[in-house]
Amino acid sequence: MSVSFLSTPDAQLDLRGTPCPMNFVRAKLRLQQMQPGSLLEVWLDPGEPIEQVPDSLTMAGYKVEQITDCTNYFSLLVRRPVTD
To answer: How far apart (Å, rounded) are the C-alpha atoms in residues 54 and 67?
Structure first.
């Protein structure tokens, strides 16, 4: 039996209904407010948000650790790097 050892998120951010690129901007701002090494759970709509935001966060230097399809939305686990 396999067990997942992903950490519990330090914060959650519900961006469902938030259009691109505002969802990326809000996620990035929230991550910047968090301590280095912190984990943020971000909820995104299907379509353009889930197609664009993970790549944009990765290019901005954040680590997308997991993407979960929750049927009507997607949950992203994003970690702020220890060194920015």
So the answer is: 9
What domains are there in the chain, each with its CATH number? 11-79 (3.30.110.40)
Residue 77: what are its φ and ψ, rounded to 5°?
Answer: -105, 115
Give residue for tokens 């680590």. Answer: 63
pLDDT of residue 6: 59
User: Which entry of 16, 20, 38, 75 is annotated as an active-site residue?
Assistant: 20
* Cβ-proximal residues to 70 (8 Å cutoff; 6+ apart), any chain: 43
The verdict on whether 20 is a catalytic residue reads yes
* Residue 5: band (very low, low, confident or very high) from pLDDT cuts 50, 70, 90: low
Q: Dump pLDDT digits (tens) for 11-33.
A: 999 999 999 999 999 999 999 99
